[in-house]
Amino acid sequence: MRRLHEFLFVRHRHNWLLLLRFAVVGASGVLVNLLTLVVVKKLGPGFNQAILPVPGTDFNVRWYHVYSTIAFLVANLWNFQLNRTWTFRTSKHARWWHEYWPFLAVGLLGQVVGLVLLTLLMHLDSPIHLSPTLLDDSTGFRTRLYWAQLIVIAVVTPVSFVLNKLWTFAAVRTHHPDLADPSHVEAVLTDEAEQAAATAAAAGAGSSGGAVPGRHDPHA
Prior knowledge:
The chain is mainly alpha-helical and 220 residues long. It has seven helices and two strands; from the N terminus they run ααββααααα. It has helices at residues 2-9, 13-43, 63-87, 96-122, 144-168, 170-175, 185-208; strands spanning 50-53, 60-62. The protein has a two-stranded antiparallel ribbon. It starts with a helix and ends in a 12-residue tail after the last helix. Residues 21-169 form the GtrA/DPMS transmembrane domain.
């Protein structure tokens, strides 16, 4: 048990801290996602209206797929910015777009999986559909789309965390391995600043200690 405790909570404490921070960011992203979903649902057509059929199936692309995707894009951008500046602390070591496109790619992969799950939760012929009797869309808390979206987020978020940790921010941490442990980030950044200052000071001292052209030492 002691070895297991050391393995989980000592050797991998930075992973737990990263997961905690990612979860906090994710929780705020859930609120952003759901608020965006509420807004676009109120502004657009009925969420269950079909837009176009999916070839070779009995399914249709419906407005709730569009609303879910818009909510995802807004929340994805929100989550990325917070993860970049707080969770993984890579904003000073990589360009914004260089990190955002893999984060977006991971998110889009999760969104595709999420849309499949969302369809299964919403389609009345699905074996896992949410009850239209209990969730009859009469109030906000009884709206099937909101609960289905919440379930999708809960399923997709852990997968997104693993993929983002291993890919999106991995290149930055490869060049700055100490950034893998967020408890050491401030110390790492401070050390880098001190080293840069020391290098600049040494360069300045070296240039001032050399001979200056056009001047002669009167004691020579």
